[in-house]
Specification:
Blueprint lengths: L1 E5 L7 E7 L5 E2 L3 H4 L4 H21 L5 H6 L3 H6 L11 E6 L5 E6 L3 E2 L1 H14 L20 E4 L9 E3 L10
Antiparallel strand pairs: 1-2, 2-3, 4-5, 6-7, 7-8
Keywords: Membrane, Transmembrane, Transmembrane helix
Protein name: PsbP domain-containing protein 7, chloroplastic
Organism: Sesamum latifolium
């Protein structure tokens, strides 16, 4: 029997095993015996890969997995405000304490309106520009636009949920 083995600190590990019989033919041991030293390495890599993929799937709510798991204890998920990240029980929560309305619950299938995001980015970009020398540079419009809006993905705004923050007169009834 001839045995030739090469081990390095990092795989690949090479194992060559040959056995000669009396008639000159080579007889190889079964593959299970040849690869037995690699079994622990394979098992460790398999468990590491499956564990990492599972954590990634739960963190990304892949296939609704996180929403499904949070649905087993919706009260705890809402107390921890996890429903602001993942839909729980079919609803998602939006929290904004700066605008005065605090929070709003919307159906989980709705997504944030990108038009409001683009407007906010434009305002932030314009605030970085120096003031104009022409004295005012145009009339300021007092428009009540939504503080937050949600709608179905891919829609043009015909169906949405919006929150408009506006001062209310004292004599409003």
């Amino acid at each position: 029997m001839n045995l030739f083995a090469t081990w390095k600190s990092n795989p690949p590990c090479r194992i060559y095993v040959t056995q000669s019989s009396d008639d000159g033919k080579q007889v190889f041991p079964p593959p299970a015996d040849q690869f037995r030293p690699l079994q622990s390495v394979f098992r460790r890599r398999l468990l590491t890969g499956v564990g990492a993929a599972s954590l990634l799937a739960v963190g990304a709510n892949f296939g609704g997995s996180t929403s499904f798991l949070l649905g087993f204890s919706p009260g705890a998920a809402r107390n921890l405000k996890l429903d602001a990240l993942y839909p729980v029980g079919g609803y998602s929560r939006y929290i904004d304490t700066n605008e005065g309305f605090g929070q709003i619950c919307v159906p989980g299938e709705l997504v944030g309106d990108q038009t409001l995001l683009y407007r906010a980015a434009g305002k932030a970009e314009r605030s970085l520009d120096p003031p104009s020398l022409g004295g005012g540079g145009g009339r300021r419009r007092n428009v009540n636009e939504p503080a937050v809006a949600f709608g179905p993905p891919g829609s043009t705004g015909e169906l949405n949920v919006s929150v408009i923050v506006s001062p209310v007169p004292i004599d409003f009834s």
